[in-house]
Specification:
By secondary structure, the chain is an alpha+beta fold. It has 15 helices and twelve strands. The strands form two sheets. Strands 2, 4, 5, 6, 8, 9 and 11 form a seven-stranded antiparallel β-sheet that branches. Strands 1, 3, 7, 10 and 12 form a five-stranded antiparallel β-sheet that branches. Pfam families: GOST_TM, TMEM87A-B_GOLD. This is Transmembrane protein 87A.
C-alpha cells in the first residue's frame, strides 16, 4: 500500500488565453535541474497577425510540506495567488520563504520555445518580507489562506515594490549566481535548485500581436522537467525505491526457504501451509510491481499507466488472503476442526467484501497526490476500518474458543502454538494503533510539517510490520518431521466438531432402522448367527476394554430407580 500517488518528474501542461497560470509542486534534492519548454499554437486564422507569447516563471521554496495543499479545482487560482504574492504563506507559522521570479521574455509563437538559463539581471526577488506581512495580517485578526481561501483568493493584495536582484542578494536567499544568459540549447536547465526543499514552480504565459498589440487566442503545451543527480524521483519518494527493492529480496528469501522446507516434507504438509505459501507469493509479486513502478518513474519521469493501480490491487489481494488465513487458523481449521462447514461461506464472504472495500480505498488513495486534500480517502477508508474492527473481534473471539477447546483436551503442543499465535496478533494490533496515533499527531495536526523527508516511513512501516508477522507465522507453522502434531485428531468425547454432524446423522439413522426392525418382528428370539455375533462382540469388549473403565462408566447408565434402590440397600447395611 502507498500513501499517495508518487510525485512525477515530467509534466505536460496546457496553457491558453483563459488559463494563463500553470505550475507544479515537488520535493527535490540539491542541484536538481529544471527544464522548461513551450510549444505554442495560435488560434487566429489570420496569418498576418504574428503572435508573440510572453513567458515568465516563479520558483518558490517553503520549509513546510503542507504549504501547498489545495485541490485540483482551485489549483489555477492558487498558482495565480502565489505568482502575485510569493512571500505570503497559508498559515500563521513563523517560517521564512524564498523565491525567484523571472521577468517576462517575449518569444514568437512556435513549437520550439526553449527557455534560456536564468539571467540575474531579469529577476525579481523579495527576501522574507511576505512572511512578515502574513504574520502581521494574522496578528491583526485576518484569516489565513488555509482557513478562508475563497476570501483571500478574490481580494486584491497590496504588493511591496519589487527589488531587482543582484548577485549578492541571490546568494543571501540561497539561489546560485549566474553569469548571464547563454544562447538557446537543445537541453539546458533554466536553473539549478540550490538546496533540498519543497518547491513550487509557476509558469505564466500571455499573448500579444506584433502589429496590433491585441491579445490573441492561443494554446501552449508547457513541458516541465525536474531531474536530480538520482533521477526523476522526488526527495520524498526516493527512499521507497530502495525499500521496495529490499523488501522484494526479503520475500524472495521467504519464498525460497518455504519452498525448500515444503519440498522436503511434501508428504506431511498441512492445508494451512499452502495458504502461507500463497501469501508469500503475493507479497513477492506486490513488492516486485512497486519496485518496477518506482524504477520506471525514476528513469522516465512519469508513471506507467495503470501500474500503480495494479500494484495496489495485488496488495489488496495479499492483505485479503492474509486475513482469511488468520481467520481460519483462529477457528482451528486443520488443527481442531478438519472442516469449517458453514463457517467457510462466512469466511469467503468476508474476504470478498474486504477485497472490494480495500480496492476502492487503495485505488482512491494511490491515485491522489500526498499533498491533495484527503476527504475522499477518509470517506473510502471508513467502511474498511469498520470491517477491520469486526474481523479483529472475530479473530480474537475464535482464538479464545479454540484455546479453550485445546485446554479441555489437554493438548499442550497445540495450546502452546496458539498462545504464541495470539501473542503475535496482539503485538500487531498494539503496534498498529501506536503508529497510527503517532502518525496522526505528528503528520496530520502540524501547521508546518518540516520533517517531510520522513514521510516515506508512513508507507514502509506497514510493509515491515506485515513481513514480521508473516515471518512469525512461518516459524510457528513451518513444515517439519512433526507436522502431524498440529494436524486434526478426532476425539471420542468431542461432539462439537463439524464433521461429527454426519456421524450423528448416521447413528440416528441406524437407531431408527433398529427400532423399525424391532417393531416389525416383535419377537425376542434371534437366529444362531446373531447370537454368535453378540457373543463375539462381548468377548471383544472383555478383552480390549479395562474393567476399571467399564466400572466407572456403568453408573452413568443406571436409571434413577436403580440409584434409589442402591441407596436404600446402603442404608439397610448401616
Amino acid at each position: 500500500m502507498v500513501a499517495g500517488f508518487p510525485e512525477q518528474g515530467l509534466w505536460h501542461l496546457t496553457a491558453s488565453q483563459d488559463h494563463e497560470y500553470v505550475g507544479v509542486k515537488k520535493s527535490v534534492f540539491k542541484n536538481t535541474r529544471v527544464f522548461i519548454k513551450v510549444k505554442c499554437d495560435p488560434l487566429d486564422p489570420n496569418p498576418d497577425n504574428d503572435l508573440i507569447i510572453k513567458i515568465s516563471w516563479l520558483v518558490r521554496k517553503t520549509p513546510c510540506w503542507n504549504d501547498y495543499i489545495f485541490s485540483q479545482a482551485t489549483e489555477e487560482r492558487y498558482m495565480q495567488y502565489f505568482y502575485d504574492n510569493p512571500g505570503r504563506t497559508q498559515n500563521t507559522s513563523k517560517f521564512d520563504t524564498g523565491y525567484l521570479k523571472n521577468l517576462p521574455v517575449s518569444y514568437p509563437c512556435d513549437h520550439n520555445i526553449i527557455l534560456k538559463p536564468l539571467d540575474m539581471d531579469k529577476v525579481i526577488m523579495e527576501n522574507n518580507e511576505g512572511a512578515k506581512a502574513t504574520r502581521a495580517v494574522a496578528e491583526a485578526g485576518g484569516q489565513p489562506l488555509k482557513e478562508n481561501e475563497d476570501k483571500l483568493l478574490s481580494e486584491e493584495e497590496e504588493k511591496a515594490p519589487p527589488v531587482v536582484a543582484s548577485t549578492e542578494a541571490a546568494v543571501q536567499i540561497g539561489f546560485p549566481p549566474n553569469n548571464g544568459p547563454e544562447g538557446p540549447r537543445t537541453r539546458h536547465p533554466v536553473m539549478n535548485i540550490p538546496n533540498d526543499g519543497v518547491y513550487l514552480l509557476v509558469v505564466h504565459t500571455t499573448s500579444t500581436s506584433m502589429g496590433t498589440g491585441i491579445n490573441l487566442s492561443y494554446t501552449a503545451e508547457v513541458t516541465i522537467e525536474m531531474e536530480s543527480d538520482y533521477g526523476y524521483l522526488s526527495a520524498v519518494d526516493w527512499p521507497l525505491l530502495g525499500f521496495y527493492a529490499a523488501m522484494c529480496g526479503v520475500y524472495l528469501i521467504y519464498g525460497v526457504a518455504w519452498l525448500v522446507m515444503s519440498a522436503l516434507r511434501w508428504r506431511e504438509l498441512l492445508r494451512v501451509q499452502y495458504w502461507i505459501g500463497a501469501v508469500i507469493f503475493l507479497g513477492m509479486l506486490e513488492k516486485a510491481v512497486f519496485t518496477a513502478e518506482y524504477s520506471s518513474l525514476n528513469k522516465r519521469g512519469y508513471s506507467v499507466s495503470g501500474l500503480i493501480v495494479f500494484a495496489e490491487l495485488v496488495s489488496c489481494a495479499k492483505r485479503t488472503l492474509a486475513r482469511m488465513l488468520v481467520i481460519i487458523v483462529s477457528l482451528g481449521f486443520g488443527i481442531v476442526k478438519p472442516r469449517l462447514g458453514v463457517v467457510l461461506h462466512r469466511v469467503v464472504g468476508v474476504g470478498l467484501l474486504y477485497f472490494i472495500l480495500a480496492s476502492i480505498e487503495g485505488c482512491t488513495r494511490a491515485l491522489q497526490s500526498r499533498v491533495d486534500p484527503q476527504r475522499q480517502v477518509l470517506l473510502a477508508s471508513l467502511p474498511l476500518s469498520l470491517l477491520e474492527s469486526a474481523i479483529c473481534f472475530w479473530i480474537f473471539s475464535a482464538l479464545v474458543q479454540t484455546t479453550r477447546t485445546l485446554r479441555l483436551r489437554r493438548n499442550l503442543v497445540k495450546l502452546s502454538l496458539y498462545r504464541h499465535f495470539t501473542n503475535t496478533l496482539a503485538f500487531a494490533v498494539l503496534a498498529s494503533v501506536v503508529f497510527m496515533l503517532w502518525s496522526i499527531t505528528y503528520h496530520e495536526f502540524e501547521d508546518c510539517l518540516r520533517d517531510w523527508k520522513e514521510l516515506w516511513v508512513d508507507d514502509a512501516y506497514w510493509h515491515v510490520l506485515f513481513a514480521i508477522i508473516l515471518l512469525v507465522i512461518m516459524i510457528l507453522w513451518r513444515p517439519s518431521n512433526n507436522n502431524q502434531r498440529f494436524a486434526f485428531t478426532p476425539l471420542l468425547d468431542d461432539g462439537s466438531d463439524a464433521d461429527d454432524e454426519e456421524e450423528s446423522e448416521k447413528l440416528m439413522a441406524d437407531i431408527s432402522d433398529t427400532m423399525k426392525y424391532r417393531n416389525t418382528k416383535g419377537s425376542t428370539s434371534s437366529s444362531p448367527r446373531e447370537s454368535r455375533s453378540v457373543e463375539e462382540d462381548l468377548k471383544w469388549v472383555e478383552e480390549n476394554i479395562p474393567s476399571s473403565l467399564a466400572d466407572n462408566a456403568l453408573p452413568i447408565l443406571d436409571s434413577d430407580e436403580e440409584i434409589l434402590t442402591t441407596k436404600f440397600e446402603f442404608s439397610k447395611m448401616q
